[in-house]
Design brief:
The protein is built from 4 helices and 5 strands, in the order E-H-H-E-E-E-H-E-H. The protein is an alpha+beta fold. It is globular, with a radius of gyration of 15 Å. The protein binds coenzyme A (COA).
């Protein structure tokens, strides 16, 4: 069956919670937390094998100047088959997101993946974490 990428499709928080178990930074997120997250996310994109959620990515943005990309994840059974690339292409070709001046993202070890889509490494970033709340 062909993999389908959807923008803004209804995503079951429990299915996303299961997918997040394959993303080190998102392991342990609760279904309630994920429901809140989805409600406050500007754009999300999901990948489906029929009814099965197999990939996800989301964007927070002002729609013109800045956007941040978060939580790009493909289920291990489907990695290396172009699903991540399809998610990225859909995001970057989106009618609103394609016009955004600057995209940011955080990654620990996937620099090579994002470089394929024009992202470059930067030392300009800073962040602040809540003690005990981050991975
Ligand atoms: C990173 C991730 C989203 C890539 O998704 P994927 O579906 O496996 O990637 P694709 O098959 O679409 O690969 C697209 C291209 O990126 C390359 N690529 C994939 N992972 C890569 C990596 N870790 N480093 C460098 N290049 C990578 C592929 O070789 C492919 O290149 P090609 O077109 O020249 O062959 C996926 O491995 C994943 O979900 N990992 C676990 C969660 C994670 O770490 N997410 C990233 C958070 S910052």
């Amino acid at each position: 069956m062909a993999i389908e990428i959807k923008e803004g499709a209804a995503v079951d928080p429990s299915a996303l919670q299961a997918l997040y178990e394959h993303a080190p930074w998102a392991r342990g997120r609760t279904a309630d937390g994920i429901r809140t997250m989805l409600a406050h996310t500007d754009y999300h994109f999901s990948a489906w094998d029929g009814p099965r959620l197999i990939g996800f990515a989301r964007v927070l943005t002002d729609g013109i100047y800045r956007a941040t990309l978060w939580d790009v994840v493909v289920h291990p059974d489907y990695q290396g088959r172009g699903v991540g690339e399809e998610l990225m292409n859909r995001i970057l070709a989106h009618p609103v997101l394609s016009r955004v001046e600057k995209f940011w993202l955080n990654t620990r070890d996937k620099f090579g993946f994002y470089q394929k889509f024009g992202f470059v490494r930067s030392e300009q970033g800073m962040f602040r974490e809540q003690p005990g709340k981050n991975r």
